[in-house]
């Protein structure tokens, strides 16, 4: 009876889900309207709907209920009563490897094709292992935190006392089970930042020097700036974003981290910012560019089926427009750190090609951060240096 009720709840969520928002924003409202659901009911309902979307566009002609059974089989490693009720023969094989389970699904549904999970796989960046990347969508990413220096023992002791399993990833990065209630474990404590593993790895490409002037051009809530500040606290920092509300979140995070000296600007970097930025010249610029976010869809699998391929070209043009307006404030011989949370070549390697060929930047190093090997997001980072004779070329592109 319980499994039947869980299935009915899944069907209601799927029917009411509008498809143009993220599940993480839709589900809390759904649960508020169904207050009879206990915490276990909400947890199971969330698991079922998220797992369903992890199938992406695979088995498109299968009824949703049957697709859900496939998803539950592939995404779980421990027996649960739902699968035992509806698919006991699969529940008995729940501990099989993912490859073994994929073969079983293929036998049951000969039309199943792993490539349909993420149909834009042909657009992936070079170096991404396509089969491994696709299989990663059946594994929920971990929750990652970056522990502030000096609080390592307190954080680990608190997690151990609460019997929360964690792994030390090095460089003050800990991985935890997704869904860990950090706000309950650490009330009013500011010993760490929640930040994905791959996002933390981008810091290796900053390499700031003391007293330099740096600009975090698309700062959002300031995660990259906090990494920069931890590496070199004696920087002159400018942060900007087009969204005033998200910069308010940045202020709070900076306050908690003790980062008090910085300038903040609200800028639309698709437009020429000279009227505000004309007096600035920077020793380093971090451009965490707006992108499809396709490297993070393991956390938001509902976006796989919502996304239209034409959006890749939209973001590619947006990135080129922003880069043109940012790089002219970079001092010759200094670095631009270009970052995306995209897995698409058009936003990654092709963007670097554009900056090298059109803006005269010199590529020092670039890397796809393969989060799928760490139960993390997949990202891209490139460190480029502005050539000594590039300024005139940057200016000439503005008139094109």
From TrEMBL:
The entry's keywords: Methyltransferase, RNA-binding, S-adenosyl-L-methionine, Transferase
Pfam families xrefs: Methyltr_RsmB-F (PF01189)
Entry protein name: RsmB/NOP family class I SAM-dependent RNA methyltransferase
Annotated family: Belongs to the class I-like SAM-binding methyltransferase superfamily. RsmB/NOP family.
Keyword Methyltransferase: yes
Annotated binding of S-adenosyl-L-methionine, by residue: 241, 268, 288
Molecular function GO terms recorded: RNA binding; RNA methyltransferase activity
PANTHER family in UniProt: NOP2 YEAST -RELATED NOL1/NOP2/FMU SUN DOMAIN-CONTAINING (PTHR22807), RIBOSOMAL RNA SMALL SUBUNIT METHYLTRANSFERASE B-RELATED (PTHR22807:SF53)
Catalytic residue positions: 341 (nucleophile)
Gene Ontology terms describing biological process: RNA methylation
InterPro entries: MeTrfase_RsmB-F_NOP2_cat (IPR049560), MeTrfase_RsmB-F_NOP2_dom (IPR001678), RCMT (IPR023267), SAM-dependent_MTases_sf (IPR029063)
Record bears the keyword Transferase: yes
Occurrences of domain SAM-dependent MTase RsmB/NOP-type (ranges): 114-400
